[in-house]
UniProtKB/TrEMBL annotation:
Its EC number is 4.1.1.20. This is Diaminopimelate decarboxylase. It catalyses: meso-2,6-diaminopimelate + H(+) = L-lysine + CO2. Residues 28-266 form the Orn/DAP/Arg decarboxylase 2 N-terminal domain. Residues 21-355 form the Orn/DAP/Arg decarboxylase 2 C-terminal domain. It comes from Candidatus Nomurabacteria bacterium RIFCSPHIGHO2_01_FULL_40_24b. Pathway: Amino-acid biosynthesis; L-lysine biosynthesis via DAP pathway; L-lysine from DL-2,6-diaminopimelate: step 1/1.
Length: 384
């Protein structure tokens, strides 16, 4: 299987040229179906910030997901991909009145992020229903940049300000019918999710008019070879139990949702790059490639690990190398001191698990163009 994949990626890299992003639609479908199956009765929204390619958004929507957006640009892309307004949500941070009003006027459900936003909403739409994002102090995630709760996080209305929130809602006759929480990203632990959901349920008891609760995203994937997968099956079983418990306590049925991004697309994506230079220094071998942090910023920005496969070398002889990009920055390194099948000039390397937060975070830094994106659909490779 791995050999077949390696050869397919090599042929693709040669045929299409490098650098290039390739996504396997089969993997995205499998991930969608896995979540649907294990989280029955929970509404699922794809956090499209992970990958906004319209073909990917369409594919995930067709698997029964709504789309979570964070900017007018993302809403526009979702529109173009044919997603109906009723299936789009918007989570806003640091937005101004004009943006907020325009999103609400489109009929999109918005999760308000601050007391100031509640005030603006109330002034423009008194008497309406609102959903608010809370910060319940359960931050989690693999890097401080992706922890979205706790005292250092810019997101959500702090748990200590619930009284003020309620007062503001009363002032404008707003009914708080939704609560939203997103604790962080790439979380691999079932207990952390359960702890966050418990905290949200506890807080929800203080709000009598709720119609929906959103648990956010954050489902992680194993980037490192020996990392344990998040057990979605167990998570699903445990969540079902806590939800039933909560409904009993709350006394009324309400809707629940998750908004995963990474989990659906990360493992479907490869960035194919070509070896352009090999430099043997006294203590290190640098392997230069025709891509860099402008195309995949995760290693430089978060110290993220991405497996790298030499698709051109089937031999088992491995060498310890540092794989560096073609951008004029010392931090432009995809992997440090990594053992991979001995690379030579012209080899095609596949950087794995880049379907999420890969292309979307790319830039034309150093005036090097962005790569193209292709998708494997039933053994055909299509430009998307
Ligand atoms: N919902 C909200 C409100 C979010 O802020 C995010 C991600 C998600 C859902 C989806 O989270 P996911 O399921 O993908 O973990 N660039 C970083 C990740 C930033 C995540 C931002 N918010 C990375 O490359 O790891």
């Amino acid at each position: 299987m791995e050999k077949k994949r390696r050869l397919l990626l090599k042929a693709t890299g040669i045929k299409l040229g490098t650098p290039v992003y390739i996504y396997d639609s089969k993997i995205i479908k499998e991930k969608c179906r896995e979540l649907k199956k294990n989280l029955p009765g929970v509404n699922l929204y794809y956090a499209c910030k992970a990958n906004t390619n319209p073909e990917i958004i369409k594919l995930i929507y067709n698997e029964g997901f709504g789309i979570e957006t964070v900017s007018p640009g993302e809403i526009k892309i979702a529109h173009k991909a044919g997603i109906p307004i009723s299936k789009i949500t918007f989570t806003c941070g640091s937005i101004d009145e004009k943006e907020l009003v325009s999103v609400v006027k489109q009929g999109i459900r918005v999760h308000l992020d601050s007391l100031h936003q509640v005030e603006i909403f109330g002034q423009n739409f008194p008497g309406k229903e609102i959903s608010v994002r809370l910060n319940l102090n359960i931050g989690a995630g693999y890097h401080s940049h992706v922890i979205t709760e706790g005292p250092d996080s810019k997101f959500g209305i702090d748990i200590s300000q619930i009284k003020q929130l309620k007062r503001l809602a009363e002032k404008y006759k707003l009914r708080i019918t939704g609560l939203h929480q997103h604790i962080g990203s790439n979380i691999l632990s079932v207990p952390i999710f359960l702890r966050a959901i418990d905290a949200l349920f506890k807080t929800a008891l203080l709000f009598p008019d709720l119609k929906h609760l959103d648990f956010g995203g954050g489902f992680g994937i194993p980037y490192k070879p020996k990392e344990r997968r998040l057990d979605i099956k167990i998570l699903g079983i445990k969540i079902k139990k806590t939800i039933l418990n909560f409904i009993q306590k709350y006394g009324r049925k309400i809707k629940f949702s998750f908004e995963p991004g990474r989990y659906l697309v990360a493992e479907a994506g490869y960035l194919l790059v070509k070896v352009t230079d090999i430099k043997k220094n006294p203590t290190k071998t640098f392997v230069g490639v025709d891509s860099g942090l402008n195309h995949l910023i995760r290693p430089a920005m978060y110290g993220s690990y991405h497996e790298i496969l030499n698709t051109s070398n089937a031999g088992s002889k491995k060498e310890k190398v540092t794989i560096a990009g073609n951008i004029c920055e010392s931090g432009d390194v995809f992997a440090k001191n990594r053992m991979i099948a001995k690379p030579k000039i012209g080899d095609i390397l596949a950087i794995k698990n880049v379907g999420a937060y890969g292309y979307v975070m790319s830039s034309e830094y150093n005036s090097r163009p962005k790569p193209e994106e292709f998708m494997i659909i039933q053994n055909k490779i299509i430009k998307i």
